[in-house]
Amino acid sequence: MTNKNNESLSSLLDDELTQAELEAMMSELEQDEAETFGRYSLIGDVLRNEQEIVVESSFSANIQAAIADIELEPVPQEQNSDVVAITAHPKWHQRFAQRLTSFGGSNTGKGMGQLAIAASVALVAVVGVSNMAPQTGDNVPSPVISTVPLVDGIAPVSADGLKQMPTADQVTQSRINALMADHKQQLRASDADEEKESEEEKEKID
Amino acid sequence: MKDFPSFKHIRQPLSFLLPFCITLFSASVLSQPGLLAASPIVATDQGATTEKVNAAFWLGKLKNALTKTNFQAGIVTLKGEKTESFQWAHGYVADQNIEIEKVAPLIGGGVTTVRRGNTVAFIEPNKEPYAVTSPSIRNFIPPVFYKDAASLSDSYQFVLVSKSQIAGRSAQLIRIESISKHVFNYWVWIDVISGLPLRLAFVDEMGEVKEQVLMTHLSLNNEPKPEMLAVLEMDLPLPAVAEIATQAETNNWQMTWLPDGFKLIKSDRHHVSISREVSDYYLYSDDLVEISIYVQRPLDSFKSPIVLKDGATSFVMLRSSGFDVTVVGKVPAEVAYQIATNVKRVQPQ
Fold first, then answer.
1. For the complex shown, is ipTM > 0.90?
2. Global pTM value
3. CA torsion, points A170, A174, A179, A181, in degrees to nearest 10?
4. In which residue ranges of chain B is pLDDT below 50?
């Protein structure tokens, strides 16, 4: 059987054959091609929503027969089985889900479950942060010397003769914050010092 | 033009004649034989003197308005890409000769500052209020304008520019310019009628505004508002003792370079707020802006140098001869960097 024949079969089903072509083809049809014809018309019916798919019961019976011989190794039922033991079981995910459900039902389990969710969120956050590595190289348009996240609204800036790209870790950042705050405090205190001095001067004059 | 720029803006003859006469008088007093050589330099000096007298008139007006009038104003500060807005109210109770002032963020949650006389209290939600002794609220107006701004160190010169309009009011612009160009220029637009600042800006050498304060509205009153008078009765915390865990002056470090006009205000060794790290500390000022210099033990993780900027404020931290030197202040980052690189250790005798 050639593809050419199949093509004419397909054309036949789509009503694209002339009478002469139809007769010529029908005469050439053999047994296996008749089966092909049957399948093609089924496909066409399904595509046109004209056919209810009849699944033969023998199909599932065949599958069951095929897997009937496969023996599952018995897993010992341990009360204190941990996750590793659970995963050893072929249907471990079902059992795990079951255990999780029953655990979540208990009082301690509820809290733990929330903790687990929080932990997973934290993990996602950590992964997210590590994906946001500072841009380097050509992506930085100007000689920006620092891509440090903004501290107290301070933006990175370029300065001549500085080529390094430092990343301020948390220790450095907290020091920067502390020094900025201290600078403000010192200015306030400096006014107080000055006032005291001027008052002392006044007293001297008096 | 620099010689007699005052001709351009005589719009208020009476108020203007006085400083002008003083200028002429001082100029004639200065006309010693040596100076009569009339070289261009002398002419410039004379011009600067004229400007200084004229500026003194306006800055005196400004100081008077800041301390002796009743007003309510809206303020917007623009720092880099950050915008903050405040309500600013000031009252003067003449019979008690006491000032009351309040600066509150327009959008809640921030620090509200209340001043009664020389007591400045900082009130913040969920925090214990505290107070310091100061004649001004250090927020958007440099303290020098509450003192004698015309006596700013010789590192600045004054340039009076023709009047302009801000928020529909006539304003006199005074440019306070750094002669050495090492620090920012400061431009002040003074309301001709009230004497209050309508706009203040740190401007760099290229004329670019680095940080500015704008008055969005202004209402003047003859008497303090009742809500301001309430501040008179408010329970304010007692001013903290000025010394914050300080020790005797430190002289371990020498600043081998500073911009012109900066003088040491104080030096000590103290625990930095928040982090409690010990630091040798130096505070310098040229009257208009201040520079803090910190010298600390080196941080292992710190990769020198770090240069950060927030509006006109620069922050430079770098490693120098085994110590971390930090310079903070409203100066260009390049200048802060140069100061930091020139902090040298004094060799023990």
1. no
2. 0.61
3. 140
4. 1-43, 244-245
